[in-house]
Amino acid sequence: MWNDLWEHHRGKVIGVAGGVFFGFIYLFFGFWDMLIFGWIVGIGLYIGNKLDRKESFVMLEDIWRYLTQKWRMFR
User: Fold this and answer.
1) What residue ranges are annotated as transmembrane (predicted)?
2) What is the pLDDT of residues 31-58, one digit of tens each?
3) Distance separating alpha carbons of residues 38 and 31, to the nearest angstrom
4) Given 1, 10, 31, 48, which residue has the most CB atoms within 10 angstroms?
């Protein structure tokens, strides 16, 4: 089971493991930081999912396209 998970979902496993690791650091500091823990694990899952699909997890082109279209009316 673990080998199958590692072979097919390596990015998600690494992302969640990284999120859990950094989340545990915050977990020891209080309740509100526990909410940050869940957020960090979610970010790790998101990045890992993007890595599994071989997609860019930073959408710089989309952000640049949005900003250039938004400010085009001032030209």
Assistant:
1) 20-47
2) 676 777 788 888 888 888 888 887 776 6
3) 11
4) 48
- What is the secondary structure of 13-52 as a DSSP string? HHHHHHHHHHHHHHHTT-HHHHHHHHHHHHHHHHHHHHHH
Q: What is the pTM of this model?
A: 0.46
Tokens of 30: 């209080």
The structural domain count of the chain equals 1
The widest CA-to-CA distance across the chain, in whole angstroms, is 58
% of the chain exceeding 70 in pLDDT:
84
| Structural domain of 64 | 2-74
